[in-house]
């Protein structure tokens, strides 16, 4: 065997001299180099490698669901004044009965009124019922006497204060049955040197407001307001309006921005120089009947009924809109609607309402 031969050689060489050790080493190395013993194989790992596994698929997440966002409510409209459609005023509502014949012209303070009613009185003449709220002039007039029509109109405004200079028993009794505040004795009037009696009784509305206090707040009288309205596009253009009473005339001319009150062939102004204009003119067709009062020459006084219903024409922005008005009771507001029952909005600003009786005629141009 190869292993035995290598052992004999090694023993025999051990007896040689040291000089021969080099050869012995070489021989030993040679014999070792010629050994046919194969190197021991590397040990195999005792533990087996783990069997690879496929990764577990993660589940696809479901898209998150949440409750639908609610649609936000639109902000409420800004409050507006119920008489003008403008910024609300904290002033009381003060009504004044004002002369409307040539003897009482020029009128004082009329150009600052928010709402003005033109009413038929005895003899086919007219008087004004002017409501002041957003502005309270220090001088208004000439103040005249009460009429039954006033007592039916005014409760639509709640409890306004009414300034007047006396009246017959029937109208005074009717006024006492309403929530209207009687301001005739509040000490705010004087006789002016501007004219002769009975056309010279004037009043200070700043003083009247202080005397009335919080008894006459503004409330909804039935007006709705809008700066524009699609129905105006198809409405006829009207630049002049004239309502003829038996002995008086209420006339207005569109000047491109408002309706100017016409008197003696021209546009009127009050004694303070303020132009008398209206952003809205309403010709409100009503029924009038004698109220049982007669004047000093036997002419009957009339009540123009504003409780009930009828037709009207609203003139605004130089155009005319026809509609139907109604009011269920004296303490309820007016309603002004078109043929479908939708409200006809007024232009923000001042309003003149002509109570056109069955004996009047209306002309437009």
Automatic annotation (TrEMBL):
Chain residue ranges for the region called Disordered: 26-93
SUPFAM superfamilies, A to Z: YerB-like
Coiled-coil parts of chain: none
Bias (Pro residues): 71-80
Top-rank taxon: Bacteria
Family matches, as InterPro entries: DUF3048_C (IPR035328), DUF3048_N (IPR021416), YerB-like_sf (IPR023158)
Ranges where the DUF3048 domain occurs: 89-215, 242-353
Pfam families linked to this entry: DUF3048 (PF11258), DUF3048_C (PF17479)
Biased composition (Low complexity): 34-70
Protein name (record): DUF3048 domain-containing protein
């Amino acid at each position: 065997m190869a292993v035995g031969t290598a052992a004999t050689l090694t023993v025999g060489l051990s007896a040689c001299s040291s000089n021969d050790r080099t050869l012995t080493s070489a021989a030993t190395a040679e014999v070792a180099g010629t050994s046919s013993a194969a190197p021991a194989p590397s040990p195999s790992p005792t533990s087996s490698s783990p069997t690879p596994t496929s990764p577990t698929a993660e589940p696809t997440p479901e898209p998150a669901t949440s409750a639908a966002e609610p649609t936000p409510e639109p902000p409420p409209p800004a409050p507006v004044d119920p008489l003008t459609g403008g910024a609300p005023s904290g002033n009381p509502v003060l009504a004044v009965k004002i002369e409307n014949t040539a003897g009482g012209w020029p009128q004082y303070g009329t150009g600052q009124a928010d709402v003005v009613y033109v009413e038929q009185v005895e003899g086919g003449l007219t008087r004004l019922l002017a409501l002041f709220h957003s502005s309270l002039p220090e001088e208004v007039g000439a103040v005249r006497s009460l009429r039954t029509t006033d007592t039916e109109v005014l409760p639509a405004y709640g409890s306004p204060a009414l300034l007047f200079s006396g009246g017959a028993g029937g109208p005074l009794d009717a006024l006492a049955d309403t929530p209207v505040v009687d301001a005739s004795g509040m000490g705010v009037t004087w006789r002016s040197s501007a004219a002769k009696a009975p056309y010279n009784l004037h009043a200070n509305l700043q003083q009247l407001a202080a005397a009335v206090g919080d008894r006459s707040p503004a409330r909804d009288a039935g007006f709705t307001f809008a700066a524009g309205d699609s129905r105006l596009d198809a409405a006829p253009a009207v630049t002049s309006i004239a309502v003829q009473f038996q002995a008086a005339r209420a006339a207005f001319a569109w000047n491109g921005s408002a309706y100017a009150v016409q008197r003696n062939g021209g546009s009127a102004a009050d004694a303070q120089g303020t132009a008398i204009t209206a952003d809205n003119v309403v010709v409100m067709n009503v029924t009038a009947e004698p109220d049982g009062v007669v004047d000093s020459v036997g002419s009957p006084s009339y009540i123009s009924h504003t409780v009930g219903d009828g037709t009207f024409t609203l003139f605004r922005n130089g155009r005319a809109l026809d509609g139907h008005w109604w009011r269920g009771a004296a303490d309820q507001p007016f309603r002004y609607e078109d043929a479908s029952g939708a409200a006809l909005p007024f232009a923000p600003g001042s309003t003149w309402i002509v109570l056109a009786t069955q004996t009047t005629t209306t002309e437009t141009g």
